[in-house]
Design goal:
Largest sheet: 6 strands, mixed
Number of helices: 9
Structural class: alpha+beta
Helix content: 25-40%
Distance between the termini: 35 Å
Strand content: 25-35%
Oligomer: single chain
Order of helices and strands: HHEEEEEHEHEEEEHEEEEEHEEHEHEEH
Radius of gyration: 23 Å
Bound molecules: zinc ion
Strand order of the largest sheet: 1-2-6-3-7-19
Length: about 375
C-alpha cells in the first residue's frame, strides 16, 4: 500500500530540526530554531495556492495562511507549534525518521509534527477537491515549548480579524481536550550583603534568605494543594531551580529561585503574584523580591456546549472515533488564546507519554485518522 501523504509529510518534518533552545546556550546551533521548518510549511501552503507568510521574530518565525471559501461564515484557527524540545539523552536518531511496526520515530513525531502533517494533508485535499466549507487560518507557531511567543505573534498579527474559535493540535490520543491547567513561572531573588566568611555578621547572607523563602513557598504549595478543580485536580507550586553564592569563604550577596505554578481556571497573574508576595512576607527574611512573574499559558476551560467542542465531536463521530471530551495535564497555546478570549479545543495524534521522551514516536494510524478528522472539520458546513 502506498504511504499516505500525511506520513510522507511527517517524515519530511521530522527530518527538519526545529529545536527550541528553551533559554539554554549550549544547544547545537545547527538544530536550533523554527525557521527552516516554517519555510518548508510556507512553501507547502503556497503550493496549494494560499498566500502564506512568515511573521513574528525573523530568527524564530511563525507561519500563517488563510483560506476563505465563498459563503463560509465561521473562521477557525488551527495551530500546530513548530518547535520541539531539545534532543539530549535521546536513544534514537532524532532527525532520521524511521517507521517500524506502525510507529514513526523521531524528535517531534508525536509533539507535534504529526498534527501538522495531518492538518496540511487534510487542507491540501479539501482545497484540491473544492470542498472547503469553513474559513480556516492555518498556523505553525514558534516557541510553544517555552514562552508561546508564536501564539502571541499570531494574536498581534490577526489583530481584529479574530477567529471564532481555535484548535491547537497536540498529542491527545485523538481525544478532544477542552480543559487543562495554565502555567506561570516566577523568579524570586534575594539581595544580601557580601563580606568575608570569617566575619559573617558584617554581611547579610542571600542564600540563607532564599532558604527561608523556599520554606515559605513550600507552605504555600501545601495550601494550594487544597484548592482543587473537579476535572483538573489541585493548583500546584514547585521550586525548580535554586542558585546562589560564589565560594565557601564569601558571604553570598545574591541568590534566586525559579518556580513553576500550575493554574486552575479563574486563576491569573495578579492572584499568583499576590500569593507569592504574601509568602515572601511570611518568610520573615529581608531583601526578597519577585523579579519576574508571568503566565506563560493560561488555563483552558471551554464549556462542553461550545461550538468548538461540538464541531470536533461531530468530526470525530463521522470518522468513528470516541467523542467524549478529556482534560490534559499539560499546558498548550489554546490557553494563550483563551486568555485573549478565543475559546478552543486541543486535539491531535500521539500520546503525551511519548512527547519529550528519549524514544519519541507516534502511531502512523493515528496521524492518518487525524487527517480524516481535520478533513471532516474543514468540510463541515459552517
Ligand atoms: Zn506540544
Amino acid at each position: 500500500m502506498a504511504e499516505a501523504l500525511c506520513v510522507r509529510y511527517l517524515r519530511d518534518y521530522v527530518a527538519i530540526p526545529s529545536v527550541n533552545p528553551m533559554g539554554r546556550t549550549d544547544v547545537d546551533p545547527s538544530i536550533v530554531g523554527e525557521r527552516r521548518y516554517a519555510e518548508h510549511v510556507r512553501q507547502q501552503l503556497g503550493a496549494m495556492g494560499l498566500d502564506a507568510e512568515l511573521i513574528g521574530n525573523p530568527e524564530r518565525p511563525t507561519v500563517i495562511a488563510e483560506a476563505r471559501p465563498a459563503g463560509a461564515r465561521e473562521t477557525v484557527l488551527v495551530e500546530s507549534h513548530l518547535d520541539t524540545v531539545p534532543v539530549d539523552g535521546m536513544e534514537i536518531e532524532p532527525f532520521r525518521p524511521r517507521i517500524e511496526q506502525g510507529r514513526l520515530y523521531g524528535r517531534g513525531a508525536c509533539d507535534t509534527k504529526g498534527g501538522m502533517a495531518a492538518l496540511v494533508d487534510a487542507l491540501g485535499r479539501v482545497l484540491r477537491n473544492g470542498t472547503l466549507r469553513r474559513n480556516v487560518i492555518v498556523a505553525g507557531a514558534a516557541d510553544e515549548e517555552l514562552g508561546s511567543e508564536g501564539a502571541r505573534a499570531l494574536l498581534a498579527h490577526l489583530s481584529d480579524r479574530r477567529p471564532d474559535w481555535v484548535i491547537a493540535t497536540e498529542p491527545t490520543d485523538l481525544r478532544a481536550v477542552r480543559a487543562h491547567k495554565g502555567v506561570a513561572h516566577a523568579r524570586i531573588g534575594a539581595r544580601g550583603l557580601a563580606c568575608h566568611s570569617s566575619t559573617p555578621r558584617k554581611g547579610r547572607n542571600a542564600v540563607v534568605a532564599i532558604g527561608h523563602a523556599i520554606l515559605s513557598l513550600d507552605r504555600l504549595a501545601s495550601r494550594l494543594s487544597e484548592r482543587t478543580d473537579p476535572a483538573l485536580g489541585p493548583a500546584t507550586l514547585s521550586v525548580g531551580v535554586v542558585h546562589g553564592g560564589a565560594a565557601a569563604n564569601i558571604v553570598p550577596e545574591y541568590a534566586w529561585v525559579l518556580l513553576d505554578r500550575r493554574l486552575l481556571p479563574g486563576e491569573g497573574v495578579e492572584q499568583v503574584r499576590g500569593e507569592l508576595e504574601e509568602a515572601l512576607r511570611e518568610s520573615g527574611a529581608a531583601g526578597l523580591s519577585i523579579e519576574r512573574c508571568r503566565v506563560e499559558k493560561g488555563p483552558l476551560d471551554t464549556p462542553e456546549s461550545h461550538r468548538s467542542v461540538q464541531a470536533c465531536q461531530q468530526a470525530l463521530a463521522v470518522v468513528g472515533l470516541p467523542t467524549e471530551t478529556a482534560t490534559a495535564g499539560f499546558g498548550t497555546d489554546a490557553g494563550v488564546f483563551q486568555e485573549a478570549e478565543i475559546a478552543g479545543v486541543v486535539i491531535g495524534p500521539g500520546s503525551v507519554e511519548q512527547a519529550h521522551s528519549a524514544v519519541e514516536w507516534v502511531e502512523v494510524g493515528q496521524v492518518e485518522a487525524m487527517a480524516d478528522v481535520f478533513r471532516q472539520l474543514l468540510e463541515a458546513p459552517a
